[in-house]
Specification:
Helix 10 packs across helix 11. Helix 2 (35-51) links the parallel strand 1 and strand 2 (54-61). The protein is α/β, with parallel strands linked by helices. The strands form two sheets. The protein has a six-stranded mixed β-sheet, with helices on both faces. A five-stranded antiparallel β-sheet has the order 7-8-11-10-9. The chain has helices at 6-15, 35-51, 68-81, 100-119, 131-144, 148-151, 176-185, 202-218, 222-251, 267-280, 290-299, and strands spanning 26-30, 54-61, 86-91, 124-126, 157-159, 166-168, 252-253, 256-258, 306-309, 313-318, 321-326.
Length: 327
């Protein structure tokens, strides 16, 4: 007897190392109805049977499109047909005031997934991002000038601070073409989000204009090269982050940081301290660029000057101390 089609096998093999939870436990699979998340759900259902795990398919209705409630119902039905042990949907309110619609939707979605994981007592949430998504994320980081933190792309696996729920992206080494092939091989019909083709959104323009142009002008393999770059930067940051953590603990104040406490630490450390302090003060991470960080560093040693940061935060200096307040 022949084995599963190659793309189906690739999806299942990618998922297998992440299902390291106790038998009987629940694993949440976030599903939008697109090819990536449906391939992920189908693969997880197959692998979970062998590991005796409960698969809970969940979908988030952002309420941003006409007919979103009807689409959500269809996704719930499709998740059940694919073999999910349980299904759930949740509707969220997107706050686009600070980082825009895309950032607001992302923040609302992850908060909702965390709530659902707590409800189902699941310690693991699987997300269907692919290598193509990773490449687009790296290019988004380049356009924002946000530095290595942004260019490292999406993490494969992480646990949010103060939470016991872990998030994982098993498909980061697979392409969108492979997840679509996996769906076709299993007779799974998928939905294409109109927002993914809407040129109002930067990610859509990167996907449909920038990436094809790069592939055409520079040759195939650009997405994989960008993903490799992200992986290498992540390794570098794993070395730097403990140094930054130590310096931050020495410099941290209730309303800012004392850069005199880390004199001689070097610009790589100082710039990361400034950025972290701004984020903790409420600045929007996705919109905080290198230009903002440099402007804050130029404040140090001055008085009477301010820098306005995304997220309605104002930075100002008192000697070597950088402080923050709500704008």
């Amino acid at each position: 007897m022949t084995g599963p089609q190659a793309a189906v096998a690739a999806v299942r093999l990618a998922i297998r190392p992440y299902l390291k939870v106790e038998p009987g436990e629940a694993v949440l699979v976030a599903c939008s109805g697109g090819a990536d998340s449906l391939a992920l759900l189908a693969g997880c259902v197959f692998e979970a049977r062998k590991a005796a795990l409960r698969v809970v398919g969940v979908t988030v209705d952002h309420g941003l499109q006409d007919g979103s409630a009807g689409h959500t119902e269809q996704v719930v039905s499709q998740m059940a047909l694919l073999g999910a042990d349980e299904t759930a949907s949740i509707r969220v309110t997107v706050d686009a005031r600070t980082g825009g619609v895309e950032a607001g939707a992302r923040e609302a979605r992850y908060a909702a997934l965390g709530q659902l994981a707590e409800h189902f007592e699941a310690r693991l949430v699987l997300l269907g991002h692919t290598l193509d998504d990773q490449a687009e994320t790296v290019l988004l980081g380049l356009t924002r000038g946000s530095g290595a933190r942004s260019l490292q792309g999406m993490r494969r696996q992480y646990v949010e601070q103060g939470s016991r729920v872990g998030f994982a992206r098993p498909l980061l080494d697979l392409t969108r073409a492979e997840t679509e092939a996996a769906c076709r091989a299993q007779g799974i019909e998928w939905w294409t989000d109109p927002h993914n083709a809407d040129p109002r959104f930067v990610r859509s323009r990167i996907r449909h204009t920038v990436m094809p142009t790069l592939e055409r002008e520079l040759g195939p393999g650009i997405a994989a090269a960008l993903a490799r770059t992200a992986e290498q930067l992540r390794e570098d940051l794993e070395l730097i982050d403990p140094l930054v953590d130590d310096a931050y603990q020495r410099a941290r104040l209730d309303d800012g940081i004392d850069l005199d406490a880390v004199d001689g630490a070097g610009e790589a450390i100082r710039s990361r301290l400034v950025r972290r302090a701004a984020v903790e003060a409420g600045a929007t991470p996705s919109d905080l660029t290198r230009s903002h960080v440099l402007a804050m560093l130029r404040l140090v040693g001055t008085s009477g000057k301010e820098v306005q940061l995304p997220g309605f935060v104002t930075a100002y200096a008192e000697g070597e101390t950088l402080r923050f307040r709500r704008t």
